[in-house]
Structure formats: structure tokens, C-alpha cells
Amino acid sequence: MSLLRTFNDSRTFCSSLSPPAYVIEVQSQAENDWLLELTATLCEAPNKYWLNGYDTDNSGTFTWINGQNQTTYTNWHTGQPDDFYGIGSEKCIVSSTGFEGVWVDIQCTESRPVVCERNV
Ligand SMILES: [Ca+2]
């Protein structure tokens, strides 16, 4: 997880894999727990990495881009999402390696690691 990319560049990276993948989407507590263990094992240092959620309409409700469904399961850190820099300023989501995998909304232009997934 040493390679850092913006959210859009992370999407491009995942889709360029063969077979194509997408930025990981967390649909359930079980998936969050699985991902937390995976990233705790494979990632060298505490970090925040992209999830594939996007706040399309600046409502503070996030949509999974690949699944095209609203987030039903969420794991927001206390006080998040908060659009810290103003409405619509933080349209992307990162999860955490450690800290129970809590989510934070951030600016999509930040450079972060990414976990890609694909359907098998
Ligand atoms: Ca935030």
C-alpha cells in the first residue's frame, strides 16, 4: 500500500487490472471485519485507503459506484461524514487500517492507497 493515488486515479488503476477490478466496496459488517484483518496483515503502517463510495448529490449519503446502490451498512467514525470544508467538499470515503476500519469522508484529490476487488 505504498503507492498513493487520487480517487480517480485509483479507479483507473483498479479497472486497468486483468481481469478488471474496482475500488473495494464494503457492503456488510462481515466484509468490514474481513477487510480489517486483511489490511492489518498486509499493510505496513496505519493508513487510510479508498473505498468506492461517492456522494453524488452532496447529500451526505454515499453511493457505491460499482454496485450502484446506496450505502446501507456504514462504519463512519464519530462525527463523519462532515464535509469539513463545506457542502460537497468531501465526496469520497476512506477506511482505516486498524481503528476498527472506521470511515471518514475526505477530498477525492487526496493521495491514498487503494484496495481493488473483483467479482469471481
Ligand atoms: Ca470528513
TrEMBL record:
Extract the Gene3D superfamilies matched here.
Mannose-Binding Protein A, subunit A
What is the superkingdom listed in this entry's lineage?
Eukaryota
The cross-references to SUPFAM superfamilies, in alphabetical order and at most eight, read: C-type lectin-like (SSF56436)
Question: Which keywords accompany this UniProt record?
Answer: Disulfide bond
Q: Does the keyword Kinase apply?
A: no
Q: Which Pfam families match?
A: Lectin_C
Q: InterPro entries per the record?
A: C-type_lectin-like, C-type_lectin-like/link_sf, C-type_lectin/snaclec_domain, C-type_lectin_CS, CTDL_fold
C-type lectin domain span: 1-117
Would you tell me the protein name for this molecule? C-type lectin domain-containing protein
Q: What organism does the record attribute this protein to?
A: Magallana gigas (Pacific oyster)
